[in-house]
Amino acid sequence: MAENAAVEISDDRERGTLTAHEDGKAAGTIAYFVMEPAPGALVAVHTVVRPEHEGKGIAGALVREFYAIAAREGVPVVPLCPYAAKWAQRHPEEAPEVPEELVREAARQLRNHPELF
Question: Which of 13, 20, 58, 104 has its CA 20 to 30 A from that of 4?
Fold first, then answer.
């Protein structure tokens, strides 16, 4: 599926959300947190697209931007979100693999963020 060029993506680091907007309305979101000690990694926990926006490439656009943000900041992405993990497998040139110990630490730290469950 092609990514939707009309989608605007904004990052709210304080809330841990990366949101895609289409026609000024929220269409999809990645919930995430920053591993401690900051900036250890960006950890994608959930990717959700509103039903009326499914099939437009919004989830892929969100994950691609999430990886781009991490690359600009010089930190890895830990894709605990199943969608983000599958996207990373399909796009290894944009989504460097992370060491398993970093994944385990991210999962441990996720327990300290019950608001993301």
Answer: 13
* 88 three-state secondary structure: helix
State how far the alpha carbon of 2 is from the alpha carbons of 6, 39, 58, in Å: 12, 32, 9
Tokens (6 digits) for 9: 């993506």
Q: Are 9 and 62 in contact (CB under 8 A)?
A: yes
Alpha carbons 105 and 86: distance in angstroms, whole number: 20
CB 31 within 8 A of CB 20: no
- Token duo for residue 36: 């401690």
The Cα–Cα gap between 95 and 66 comes to: 10
**Contact assessment for residue 48 and residue 11, using Cβ atoms and an 8 Å cutoff:** no
What is the tens place of the pLDDT at every residue in 56-98?
999 999 999 999 999 999 999 999 999 999 999 999 999 999 9
Q: How distant, in Å, are the alpha carbons of 52, 63, 78 from that of 86? A: 22, 10, 12
